[in-house]
Design goal:
alpha+beta; 3-stranded antiparallel sheet; two-stranded antiparallel ribbon
Length: 132
């Protein structure tokens, strides 16, 4: 395998894309992998600062947050805006879970990664996992 240079790395089109059938919605949804900065932003959104200054896991709408960040239209533009999160999170859990699983795969996130992120910010080591 060839050693890559700066220009080759910066010019690489390296964000994977996958169309996911969502029969509950009557079609397919196109998802793409996130950039490093976008993934950091998503992971950061799963942590909140408590009133006493400690950090705590916040899994509210975690599934819809990832799906909304990964969903794109035919031109590669984001399908959703931050204001759409609550409406998206009210959609079918089965459909969202299917999209979430593909979004996890596209971004190299495993269930263990998600569990570890939550455990890092949990007061209780026996706290429920993100899939609970």
């Amino acid at each position: 395998m060839a050693l890559l240079g700066r220009e080759q790395i910066l010019a690489a089109n390296d964000l994977p894309v996958e169309d996911v059938p969502v029969p509950e919605w009557g079609g397919e949804v196109r998802l793409r992998g996130l950039t490093g900065a976008e993934l950091d932003e998503y992971q950061g959104s799963l942590v909140v600062q408590t009133a006493n200054g400690q950090q705590k896991a916040n899994l509210r709408n975690a599934t819809a947050k990832l799906v909304s960040r990964c969903a794109i239209d035919e031109d590669g533009a984001p399908l959703f805006e931050p204001k759409d999160l609550l409406k998206l999170s009210s959609k079918s859990a089965v459909a969202l879970q299917r999209l979430f699983a593909v979004a996890q795969k596209l971004n190299g996130l495993t269930d263990d990664d998600m569990r570890e992120l939550v455990e890092d910010f949990s007061d209780d080591p026996s706290a429920s996992s993100p899939s609970d």
